[in-house]
Amino acid sequence: MNLLVGQIGHFSVILAFAAALVAAYSYFQASRGRALGQEDPSWLRLARGAFFVHGAAIISVIVCLFNIIHAHRYEYYYAWSHSSNHLPVQYMISCFWEGQEGSFLLWIFWHVVIGFCIMRFNKQWEAPVMAVFSGVQLFLVSMIIGVVVGGVRVGSSPFILLREFLTDLPVWKMNPNFVPKDGTGLNALLQNYWMVIHPPTLFLGFALTLVPFAFAIAALWKRELTAWVKPALPWTLIGGGVLGVGVVMGAYWAYETLNFGGYWNWDPVENAVYIPWLVLVASLHGLVLWQKRRTGLRTAFALVVATFVLILYATFLTRSGVLGNASVHSFTDLGLSGQLFIYMAFFTVLAVALLVSRWKEIPISAKELNAYNPELWVFVGATVLCLGAFQVLFTTSIPVYNSFMGLIGIKTNVALPADQIAHYSKMQLWMGVLVALLSGIAQVMWWQRNTKETLINSLTGPTLLALLGTALTVLLVRYNGLTITAPYIVLTLAGLFGVLANFGMIFTLLRRGVRLSGGAVAHLGIALMLLGILASAGYSNIISRNVSGLLYSREFSEDLNRDNVLLWRNESAPMHGYQLTYTGQYFEVPGVPGYVDKQFLFRTDDDYKAIARAPIAVEGKTYYQTGDTLEILPENTYYRINYKDQKSGEQFVLYPRAQINDEMSGGGLLASPAIKKFWGHDIYTHISSVLDPRKEKPWSEAKESVLSVGDTIFLNDYFAVFRAVEAAHETAGLNLQKGDLALQADMIVYGEKRQYHVHPVFVVRNRMVGSLPDEAEDLGVRISFKGVDPAKGKFTFDVSTTQKDYVILKAMEKPFINLLWSGTLLMAIGFGLSVRQRGGKGVLSNEAAAETEVVAGPTGRAVRPQPAG
């Protein structure tokens, strides 16, 4: 047992907690009673030093935790419960943040990085902002400190020993230093490259929401009620872009890994991230309104505060265990629910109290807004986003409501909607309509002087083109025999209008020599995302309908029998314009590109090792020779499916994966799709049912045959030719020793469409005989070499049969889903452009000049009017 690394890690957590406490108090004292930028230098030096110590301690914790995972130190519960001996390094990284403690640590780490950036680039605001940062760090580090104070456990340590966690197991009484040889492994669904990059992106987005919140709190504290907007806005833009990309990354992970056929299932944990992002984007518009038009400052304050409070609420939802029965991937309660509630309540009360006390001092615009003011439509757009967030928040919080009422002794049984997807989508669809329309209208109005005539001129073009495009879409949909409802027609019209209006604005600005508008690019991306969601979700088409007239199994659901195609191994079957052929099972072999046919591998007693039965070669390069021992990753079996277009003859191959895993929710088959991407659609394929590889095949009673070399034997519908007998090689994993005799038969089995080589083995060791059967899995035939009569030249074989190998497969066509992913990319680029424009050279040094806007003058040339209001 290596206790030192855990002791160093736990000491580092305690040091990080103490340093955060010192930093928070010192930053507070440095700024207390002093004007902004006039901090006490001695307290400021102490605060900076403490925060540097805090950062170094957090790095030490990360190194120690990754060490116990990477070095397979299973004496620690965290390594044992999340890792295993055979995980690749990239999935060990995923292990790091699979657990609650690791994900808290990732969040803490990003706060450290951002804190150092604030100390470097926002020196005037450093003391009050970092006081808030350090205070938040204090609470977060308490979640992983794992100490007992006055009989109350504070936090859950990632360095707890396995024997301390599983104290009831008798093995500890017999051997207190017992260490398991292997861990339980990483959740199979998380063994995906998106899980390596998605959580860091998402938690960076979480961490970035603290920055505008900290600036807002500092501004309220120091009564700098307007100056905070300029430094906070670039951080808010970065946060909006990163968190938005993180949300869509999670959607893409679900699309690529889960088999429900989509990318968003309105799971409460998904909602808990989506809600604060909507409010964050709304707050961003509030900040822009104040910086550019001197209006909406109170709204900006309220939404910035609400964003961070919703992040804390999302943390409480996903980590308190309250969603245990409502979400498929929430964390279980580690006894932190009380701490999480205190954490949320402290900063909520602090922010609301400061906001209320300064509310009347916050400047408001004296300008009256009318329909020709873009500020009005930007404000309406922000309101729509907040209403959409509230609808999701209200329904997602039903389990919290039930739990709270239970705590005060009132039993409630308010249930979540039976069809949550329909419930959420109904209102979110109309929110999407309004967002698309408003994004186009507001963007056009933002860059020009607005009168009735200019608005008509500016909006007529995109409106007419959107109407024309919608009409063509309706005709195409109906031409293809599909229906389109009125809400979908409206959403199509709104999405096309949003795309055309924003694209037109981008083109106009570039033509006038004005810098590219990040807002227009981001809005264009969001409109494309809406169209992609509409097309892919509304017109996803199942192309694997069962047209055989057969019922696969009475035990299967109606959907499985109706919407899936049965593929016998190496037998083609038609499916919606394609000819499909299932050609076998494959494994991942580290170091070998692609996948390796299972028939080329002889499995050993070690599940993670196999012996090559033939050369393993890819594109002319041989990676293993016959008889070599190689490593495999046996958790997933990949099923090779060949698609052939019946019209063009073009072919492609997909490898959907599946595993039988009783530890997953519901047990049984765990399948992940394979996706073929085309410019206009995706073919989305996943396995619905296979023969259970854990169960012994039900072989028929063996039928004995005595053959000579060259004889033919009939095997039900097939026949085999006994070609030769030769010395067996190590390829069968025989572990041959001196004095052993091993012979293998060479037999060719003739199937309907191809031939199969079968090599059963006969072994004599220590005057005892044995046999190692071989089988043609495609045909369900097994042959055993049972005996030799050298005097007569006769050989005895046993033949058994079983059910042929098959897969039951579901395939869907998802039209125009690339609009969703490309729209996400454009949205991120738009946020990036806005950051560059407002955070770098794009922000004018003179704050008054920063309030100006570029608009079209009467002659169409770009002019800079005086700030509105």
Summarize the amount of helix as a percent range: 40-55%
* Integer-rounded radius of gyration: 33 Å
The fraction of residues in strands falls at: 15-25%
How many H/I helical runs?
23
Q: How many runs of DSSP E, i.e. beta strands?
A: 31
Low-confidence stretches: 326-330, 840-869
User: Biggest sheet, open or closed, and with what strands and sense?
Assistant: 7 strands, antiparallel
Shape call: globular
Structural category: alpha+beta
Mean pLDDT: 86
Intertermini distance? 70 Å
Description:
With 869 residues, the chain is an alpha+beta fold. The chain has 23 helices and 31 strands. Strands 5, 6, 7, 13, 14, 15 and 16 form a seven-stranded antiparallel β-sheet that branches. Strands 20, 21, 22, 23, 24 and 25 form a six-stranded antiparallel β-sheet that branches. Strands 3, 4, 17, 18 and 29 form a five-stranded antiparallel β-sheet that branches. β13 (633-645) and β14 (651-654) form a beta hairpin. The longest helix has 30 residues, at 41-70. It is globular and about 110 Å long. The relative contact order is 0.07.
Summarize the structure.
The protein has 869 residues and is α+β, with helices and mostly antiparallel strands.
List keywords for this structure.
single chain; 869 residues; alpha+beta; 7-stranded antiparallel β-sheet; 6-stranded antiparallel β-sheet; 31 strands; disordered C terminus; transmembrane helix; cytochrome c-type biogenesis; Cyt_c_assembly
